[in-house]
Design brief:
Elements lengths: L3 H27 L6 H21 L10 H28 L8 H21 L3
Helix pairs in contact: 1-2, 2-4, 3-4
Length: 127
């Protein structure tokens, strides 16, 4: 189970990202292209990555009750799948014309997610 301080921190970060995203959308609604689309897409990608990362890290989001050993194996598989999807997404991004698109800003946080989770695991000594 995650530390309450860590959970509070990530809830604050999610709220700040969500609020920033709403502000960007409202500004762009009032005045077209006032905030670059790259910023809005990056904020949305960060919010999605934060949500996915939270479900991977927090065993309380799962309906299944696993033993500690099974939980560890399941989390390791989730990390492996995350690295696989990040690698595929990065390859598609860099080897296609998508790299010239503003959508690259949306995918950047999702590509970086497994690395962030790995760093978090090393810092919290849970990996």
């Amino acid at each position: 189970m995650r530390n309450k301080t860590e959970a509070s921190f990530w809830r604050f970060v999610a709220g700040a990202l969500g609020l920033s995203l709403v502000v960007c959308v409202l500004i762009n609604t009032a005045r077209n292209d006032a905030v670059p689309h790259q910023i809005t897409l990056f904020l949305f990608g960060c919010l999605v990555a934060l949500g996915v990362g939270s479900t991977i890290v927090n065993p309380n989001t799962s309906q299944a009750m696993l033993s500690e050993h099974e939980e560890f194996k399941f989390r390791r598989k989730q990390y492996a799948v995350g690295f696989f999807f990040s690698a595929i997404l990065a390859l598609l991004l860099f080897l296609t014309e998508l790299r010239h698109s503003v959508l690259a800003w949306l995918f950047a946080p999702i590509i970086a997610l497994p690395f962030g989770l790995l760093i978090r695991n090393r810092i919290t000594k849970k990996g």
